Amino acid sequence: MSHIILRQAERTPSHPALLADSLRHPGKPGCFAPNFKLETSYPESLSESSPACAPTTQAEYIRWWCAVNERRQDQEVTFDGITVNVRKNVFCPDPNMTHLPILMTHLTPNLVGKKVLDIGTGCGVLAIQAASKGASKVVATDIDHAALANARENVESHGLSNVIDVVESDLFENVSGQYDLIFANLPILDSFWSDRTGPVATMYQRFIENVGRHLTENGVALLGFASFGDMNAAEELILCSPLLKQELSERKFGVDWFVFELGHHQK
Ligand SMILES: C[S@@+](CC[C@H](N)C(=O)[O-])C[C@H]1O[C@@H](n2cnc3c(N)ncnc32)[C@H](O)[C@@H]1O
């Protein structure tokens, strides 16, 4: 059993039936009141024990992740029943190293007929998960050439080239159309990513400014974040967004992992 905290934005959201049942309890609209807390049971796979050496504080986690990341080679990662190749210079979604990819996957159990956009796809794991859950069309984007090549390799090896388009794009720059679901597990730690992506806060600002026009009327964007990032900047940008519907958080490896649900509020 793991503990999930769910907080809803002030306006009552209308759920587009994408989030898992365990997260669909409406509760009282609470505008992030600290006592608005929901604890639920969660799929077993999220409670899997981590390796014995896994960190239990945020500082330990960052040190541990950097050390493991530095050492890793090309590898296969099995992720919720799907195996992908992860090249050594591409972000590794292994649930023993990070938490947002698996959390986002578990939040979206059924995507039959949905149009999905995966911004910052890395090795393509969320896009492949979406296609395997029935999405009719998936667009997977990244700015990094190694990630794009790795995503294409995985899409092809899973025989999904007819469903998933891998597109080079800086956020929404080369994206057109509207989507039922947008995944955005983007860079969080400035010290690791900013040389390649520029300041992380600026990227989140651009994401928030543009995401609305790529969502269908009932569409949902799941934007990840974690407590080792610049929480002040994230709160300023994300919690102030008129698109924010609710926020989910879960602690793992001594880190609080956040998924923000963004979408259009119904009139
Ligand atoms: C933390 S990794 C996550 C990868 C993948 N979503 C996953 O969950 O495994 C973030 C990814 O975002 C990509 N990225 C960074 N800045 C970007 C931008 N401006 N536009 C698109 N992708 C970007 C990085 O190259 C990287 O592959």
Summarize, please.
This protein is of the alpha/beta class. The chain has seven helices and ten strands.
Topology readout:
Layout: E1 4-8, H1 58-71, E2 75-79, E3 82-86, H2 100-107, E4 115-119, H3 125-132, E5 137-142, H4 145-157, E6 164-168, E7 179-184, H5 190-197, H6 200-211, E8 215-226, H7 231-239, E9 244-252, E10 255-262
Helix pairs in contact: 6-7
The chain binds S-adenosylmethionine.
The site of S-adenosylmethionine (SAM) has 21 residues, from helix 3 and strand 5.
What does this structure look like?
The protein has one domain: Vaccinia Virus protein VP39 (Rossmann fold), CATH 3.40.50. Helix content is 27%, strand content 25%. The chain has helices spanning 58-71, 100-107, 125-132, 145-157, 190-197, 200-211, 231-239; strands spanning 4-8, 75-79, 82-86, 115-119, 137-142, 164-168, 179-184, 215-226, 244-252, 255-262. The strands form two sheets. Strands 1-9-10-8-7-4-5-6 form an eight-stranded mixed beta sheet, sandwiched between helices. Strands 2-3 form a two-stranded antiparallel sheet. α6 (200-211) runs parallel beside α7. The longest helix is centred in the first third of the chain and has 14 residues, at 58-71. The N and C termini lie far apart (37 Å). S-adenosylmethionine (SAM) binds at residues 91, 93, 101, 119-122, 125-126, 141-144, 147, 170-171, 185-187, 197, 203. The site of S-adenosylmethionine (SAM) has 21 residues, from α3 and β5.
